Amino acid sequence: MSLLNFPHAAPRLILFDWHATLVDTHDAMYHAVDEILPKLEELGLFERMISIKQSRTLEDAKLVRYVRQYRQLHPKVRQARKISRTDIFEVLFGHDQEAKDKAHRAFDAAYRTHCGSVTPLEPDVLKTLGHLREMEIRLGLLSNRNREFMEQEIDALGESGWREYFDTMVCGDDVRRRKPHPDQIQAALSHVGERAGLHCWYVGDSTTDIAAACKAEVAAVFYNGAGWEQDWIDRIFPGTVSHPYRPHAVVANLHELLHQVRRLKYAVSE
Q1: Are the C-beta atoms of 34 and 161 separated by less than 8 Å?
Q2: What angle do CA 14, 16, 20 make, to 5 degrees?
Q3: Helical (H) or strand (E) element with 127
Q4: Cα–Cα distance for residue pair 266/248, rounded to 1 Å
Q5: Which residue from 182, 189, 191 is spatially nearest to 216, judged by alpha carbons?
Q6: Cis link prior to 180 (omega < 30° from 0)?
Q7: pTM, whole model, 2 decimals?
Q8: Which of 171, 222, 229, 255 is most buried, by the most CB atoms less than 10 A from its CB?
Q9: Is 28 in contact with 111 (CB distance < 8 Å)?
Q10: Is the Cβ–Cβ distance between 129 and 139 less than 8 Å?
């Protein structure tokens, strides 16, 4: 998959996911997940987990089985640090939106004691954002995090001016439904006065990000910062009836994203 699949769709607006796309908040996130998984029965969520047979992939089934048995993530999952809490809840609860909403609320309560541990995911994040702004591309920031936490995390990065790079920021509690629903993207488009289309890109690292982008009818760009192999990407985006959403493009890092934007915007040939 390549951005060259739509060579006439240079972006006017790029929306970015926060965690694991622009910044690293894995420590705080996994601490919060570790707190809530042993409380699944107490939260009334254990019986609402999907059956192993309903899992999308073999790896999803393994995660469900392990959580059912031990009420925690497998140590290899935690060590790999490649799956977000939103994707964890998607794997565990499938299409049960009420269960996922309850899990997100429990996560928020736990995350409050860990929020603040945040670092740029790549060393040149701000430089890349600056280059995009120089090309007169508007930028937005989306996160399933509550605004309370996003405000803390963006400020924890110091006096580096991160806020000034973004024309809009939409958080999980700003809308009725979090990703993988399209509400946040639609709200961001409304804030900046853009209509949906391939001239608007959403860049994110998870299956829920890609699903949200496809549902919002914008270009879905999968940020493969975790370094998944192509066969794994094909498995998590199978393009089946039950899991139809696939990215329009995959980039390995922000430098590659910037390169592709320049190619499309200025029609630079190889």
Answers
A1: no
A2: 150
A3: helix 125-134
A4: 20
A5: 182
A6: yes
A7: 0.89
A8: 222
A9: yes
A10: yes
Question: pLDDT tens across 89-129, in order?
Answer: 999 999 999 999 999 999 999 999 888 778 999 999 999 99
pLDDT bracket for residue 8 (50, 70, 90): low
Helix axes 254-266, 125-134, angle to 10 degrees: 10
Contact 236, 209 (CB under 8 A): no
Q: How many Cβ atoms from other residues are within 10 Å of residue 111's Cβ?
A: 23
Q: Which residue has the tokens 């409304």?
A: 190
Pairing of strands 13-17, 168-170: unpaired
Contact 20, 206 (CB under 8 A): yes
* Beta carbons of 79 and 90 less than 8 angstroms apart: no
Task: Copy the structure tokens of residue 41.
Answer: 């029965």
Asked which of 9-23, 40-54, 87-101, 107-121 is least confident by mean pLDDT, the reply is: 107-121
Rounded Cα–Cα distance for residues 57 and 77 (Å): 15
**Strand 168-170 to 200-204 pairing:** unpaired
**Nearest alpha carbon to residue 147 among 115, 110, 99:** 115
Neighbours of 227 (CB within 10 A): 9
- Compute φ and ψ for 191, nearest 5 degrees: -60, -40
Q: 3-24+120-266, what's its fold?
A: Rossmann fold (3.40.50)
- For residue 8, what are the contacts with CB-CB under 8 A and spacing of at least 6? 264
Beta strand ranges found along 75-186 (DSSP E): 119-120, 138-142, 168-170
